[in-house]
Design goal:
Blueprint lengths: L8 H19 L6 H8 L3 H4 L6 H24 L6 H19 L2 H4 L5 H28 L8 H19 L6 H17 L18
Helix pairs in contact: 1-2, 4-5, 4-7, 5-7, 7-8, 8-9
Length: 210
């Protein structure tokens, strides 16, 4: 009879986080207990406390993990040389949307019972992504597409607005999130005082313009 495989501390930690992410998204953060997480992770409840003092601390670790994945993707996009504003902006917004849907599940994640998760993710995402988006906006300024006194402020406003649209949509019918996302290009274009066709490259795909 084969002996059970002994897991390393790092493997246990990642499996606990994976189990928590699945339960938080499917059942809601408020409705998920430490016991639920450890049942899903197939471990003793005491194992949880070897890595996290509280469920809230685990959530902080998850938010940090999500944010680092987003940051790496954005860095890869901005690393492309000789790329225009419209291409950078389209790729950046499209990638964030696709990753949110794949990693978190839009409809499941953005709902009232996940309020604390949404708050923490929005706060962290704004901190991490804003400087990169500000650089993209500076490209648009350099290309003469629009003028902004403070690109960093506008970048923060756009990120908060995008995540806010998801959060608000989660409080309504199932189609509300997608409807809010569809309006985002027009709203952002109005903020930057630019034609929406100069904001998103429709040939890249994945971006809906109203």
């Amino acid at each position: 009879m084969a002996r059970p495989v002994k897991k390393s501390s790092e493997q246990w930690k990642q499996e606990i986080m994976d189990a928590a992410q699945t339960l938080f998204v499917s059942n809601g953060y408020d409705e998920t207990s430490v016991g639920d997480i450890m049942i899903a992770a197939k471990g003793a409840k005491g194992t949880f406390y070897q890595f996290f003092e509280t469920k809230d601390q685990l959530l902080d670790a998850l938010v940090e993990r999500w944010a680092s994945v987003y940051e790496k993707a954005v860095i890869d996009i901005l690393g492309a040389k000789d790329t225009s504003f419209i291409t950078k902006f389209t790729n950046m917004m499209m990638t964030i949307g696709q990753m949110s849907n794949k990693t978190l599940g839009m409809e499941a994640f953005f709902r009232p019972s996940n309020g604390i998760m949404i708050y923490k993710l929005t706060k962290r995402m704004t901190t991490i992504i804003t400087p990169y988006l500000a650089e993209v906006l500076k490209t648009g300024i350099d290309e003469g597409l629009f003028t902004l006194d403070n690109p960093h402020f506008y970048a923060s406003f756009i990120i908060n607005g995008a995540l806010g649209a998801l959060s608000t949509g989660g409080n309504g019918p199932s189609q509300s999130i997608q409807q809010n996302l569809n309006f985002l290009p027009t709203i952002i274009a109005n903020i930057l005082r630019i034609d929406v066709d100069k904001l998103f490259d429709a040939s890249i795909g994945g971006v809906s313009k109203c």
